[in-house]
Design brief:
By secondary structure, this protein is an alpha+beta fold. It has eleven helices and 25 strands. The strands form six sheets. Strands 1, 20, 21, 22, 24 and 25 form a six-stranded mixed beta sheet that branches.
Length: 564
């Protein structure tokens, strides 16, 4: 990277004001916040125990819990209860919000400030036009009434890239903008209503008109159509699971226990071939791998079916012309089967990761509230034996947990593949480039170097619209050395990237700067800091996010900031 010399003639107009108003946070020490551990010395999983009414039981003792690995009882060595019950903040009364009030400036959370990490994954590859309406309404209510301080939230669509609007944030403005992007995807597998309209096939119409069509031909035609629909559904479900895998791996390095709420019209675990025989779905193996990844990343998946409680009878859009009463009943039976089969995938995914499904329920917001109340859990651990990670004898280790108390419900992770975390753990040593890139993409404020970012919108006749970013840098966090001419010198790298709402990078800067100053200026810089400013052109209207990271070459500290 090229070297540039940063002058100090025009940098003090902004520094004194910002440094006087913002206290300097200290770098946060690293802590071990793993929830699920799968190592050669410790297997630790999270367990949720509730009573008949669904409330978390908080007073269990170690002797009341038994854990089994592949049917063999294990000796519990670790036991603790983690309470994430939070006092409810004052709810706003609908219709009383002052729309002219100045919005509160968003704050970027540090890892120790996060209380709940929640990804609301909207499966727009499967959602019907009807379901999208209810999903958008529930998302808006979550942001308005259910989201609290300390929540790190992302609203992610499975059918689009992870752009500026699909990143973890505590900024409600960014979440509102993400909700506006949740729309029915005509290129997906979702229909207008919850189910496809009933109508006669060409072969059924031909028979109704008197053609010589046997029942065997009709059955074969029905099986072919069902096989095609199942294949199409599995293709889109594969896309959904691929997006989920990407999200889970992105959440792996976030602290504590994480939650994913998948809002989807479902997918099938088992399908039928052209002969009508049931077979395993093409996605079953991918789903099992996804469950293992979620369990290792301490991610609990909750699934929600926006279709709600369906009558499963005839609707206004159904056309029974050309269909006999038996054929109509058969199609209604197929509709019922489709609902149950697609819900089966949602139930399986949730229960295998320690969550629960919200199905046959018209209150999506109530389902979200129930999930938010399900954030307390027990940590139970034991020491594995030598056979646990033996690839010759155990490909998958099944877990079973029992609680010796009446009228309780126990939810836990189904198990894990015979690979330890040590075998797949990322190397700890990072290159300078990796350090600054990790700071750039992290949802948290990396505060090794304290930064403050402000934006000013402008328009020029020659260059058009642009945004000027003013980045205040606390010079006390930089390491200055004595130059040969007696001046003080600091060297730092700057990477700034602007993301569009579709995931593309619209502009970026990557440069290395050398800051030199004389002794009489040095103390003032330490006290007031300095400002680095740069313009970015705005070529078209839309949502943008600037993410900037700085690394001190001599002190090896890293800082980051972002602005939506």
């Amino acid at each position: 990277m090229k070297k540039f010399y940063l002058t100090l003639l025009c940098v003090f107009f902004f520094a004194a004001t910002v440094s006087a108003q913002n206290p300097t946070p200290k770098p946060t020490p690293e802590t071990d916040e793993d929830v699920v551990k799968i190592s050669t010395t410790l297997i630790q999983v999270d367990v949720t125990v509730t009573d008949k009414s669904g409330k978390v039981i908080t007073d269990l003792k170690p002797e009341e819990i038994e854990i089994y690995e592949n049917g063999e009882k294990q000796n519990i060595t670790n036991f603790s209860f983690i309470s994430n019950i939070r006092a409810q903040t004052e709810k706003s009364v609908p219709g009383t919000t002052d729309k002219t009030a100045v919005p509160v400036p968003p704050t970027q959370l540090r890892p120790e400030q996060v209380r709940r990490t929640i990804a609301l994954v909207v499966d727009d590859l499967s959602l019907s036009f009807e379901s999208v309406y209810y999903v958008r309404r529930a998302l808006k209510k979550f942001v308005d009434e259910q989201m609290q301080d300390g929540d790190l939230v992302a609203i992610i669509r499975t059918g689009s890239g992870a752009g500026a609007l699909q990143q973890f944030t505590s900024d409600r403005r960014q979440l509102y903008a993400a909700i506006e992007k949740v729309r029915w995807n005509p290129a997906g597998n979702g229909k207008i209503g919850a189910f496809a309209a009933i109508e006669a096939t060409p072969l059924e119409q031909a028979k109704a008109l008197g053609a010589n069509v046997s029942d065997e031909q009709l059955e074969a035609d029905r099986n072919r159509n069902q096989n095609f629909n199942d294949f199409q559904g599995s293709v889109f479900a594969t896309g959904t699971l691929g997006a989920m895998d990407f999200i889970i791996r992105g959440m792996q390095d976030l602290p504590g226990r994480k939650s994913i709420m998948l809002l989807s019209d479902g997918f099938k675990l088992f399908t039928k071939d052209e002969s009508g025989f049931t077979e395993s779905s093409r996605i079953l193996n991918s789903l099992r791998r996804l469950i293992d990844a979620a369990n290792r990343a301490s991610v609990v998946v909750y699934t929600m079916d926006p279709r709600g409680l369906q009558t499963l009878g005839l609707t206004a859009e159904d056309n029974t012309n050309g269909l006999s009463s038996d054929q109509t009943e058969q199609k209604l039976s197929d509709r019922r089967t489709e609902l149950f089969d697609t819900q089966e995938g949602l139930v399986f995914l949730a229960r295998q990761t320690g969550g629960f499904p919200i199905i046959n329920n018209n209150d999506l917001s109530g389902g979200i509230r129930k999930i938010l109340d399900d954030q307390s859990y027990y940590l139970v651990g034991y020491q594995p034996d030598a056979d646990t990670f033996d690839p010759k004898t155990r490909q998958f280790n099944k877990l079973q947990i029992k609680v010796n108390r009446k009228d309780v419900n126990v939810r836990y992770r189904s198990g894990f593949f015979g690979v330890s975390d040590e075998q797949i753990k990322k190397p700890l040593n990072q290159t300078p480039r990796q350090q600054i890139m990790n700071a750039l993409t992290s949802p948290f404020a990396v505060n090794g170097i304290t930064l403050r970012l402000n934006t000013l919108f402008g328009n020029a006749a020659k260059d058009g619209s642009f945004v000027r970013f003013l980045l205040h840098i606390d010079a006390k966090d930089l390491k200055f050395t004595d130059a040969a001419d007696g001046n003080k010198k600091a060297v730092f790298d700057v990477i700034a990237v602007v993301y569009g709402d579709n995931g593309t990078i619209t502009d970026q800067i990557s440069q290395s700067y050398t800051l030199t100053t004389k002794d009489e200026r040095y103390k003032k810089i330490l006290n007031e800091g300095f400002v680095y400013h740069f313009p970015f052109p705005i070529k078209k209207p839309g949502a943008y996010q600037l993410r900037v990271a700085i690394r001190d070459e001599q002190g090896e500290r890293v800082g980051s900031a972002n602005q939506f």
